[in-house]
Write a structure and sequence with these properties.
There is one protein chain. With 155 residues, the protein is an alpha/beta fold. It contains five helices and four strands. The chain has a four-stranded parallel β-sheet with strand order 1-2-3-4, with helices on one face. The relative contact order is 0.09. It folds into two domains: 108 residues, no CATH class; 47 residues, no CATH class.
């Protein structure tokens, strides 16, 4: 039984990636790490497509990491597709045999910390950091351009 609200139909996206020969392009680019973000089903299918390229090759399979909100239903057999998991919500769904998938809690505030750093390094944007230092003001209309300007000035 599959709870439908936890799945999204990604078959058309998968088909587009296969038409573009994405697994072959990944293999040819020789990455040291492949980071999959937030879709277990797509990750498992893509990693399955990559295996034949590395099975008969002198190249080692790159590290395969997965970023998602929390570790859920990850078992020993998932290590065939994913080496390590990074998660943002400090929650681990227990499995019956007590197995704990190799993973690391990275926190929820990575984006906040990055924007705070950009604002703090730019005198034109520093006023957007609240006095308590715990919150930021952003513009719905100009956020992207303000951020780009801040990034350019840091570089």
């Amino acid at each position: 039984m599959v709870n439908k609200h936890f799945t999204r139909d990604t078959n058309h996206v998968y088909d587009l990636m296969m038409e573009a020969n994405l697994p072959k392009k990944i293999y040819q680019s020789r990455p040291s790490l492949i980071m999959n973000v937030g879709n277990e089903y797509m990750t498992f299918m893509m990693m399955e497509e990559l295996l034949p390229f590395y099975n008969n090759s002198a190249q080692n399979m790159p590290k395969r990491h997965f970023l998602d909100r929390f570790v859920r239903d990850m078992r020993t057999w998932n290590e065939k597709h994913i080496d390590h998991m990074h998660f943002t919500v400090p929650l681990r769904a227990p499995v019956q045999d007590g197995y704990e998938f190799p993973s690391e809690y990275i926190g929820q505030y990575g984006v906040y910390d990055a924007i705070h750093h950009i604002y703090s390094k730019n005198s034109n944007l520093a006023h957007l950091i609240k006095d308590d230092g715990k919150s930021l003001m952003t513009s719905k209309r100009y956020f992207a351009s303000e951020l780009e300007t801040g990034i350019d000035k840091i570089r």
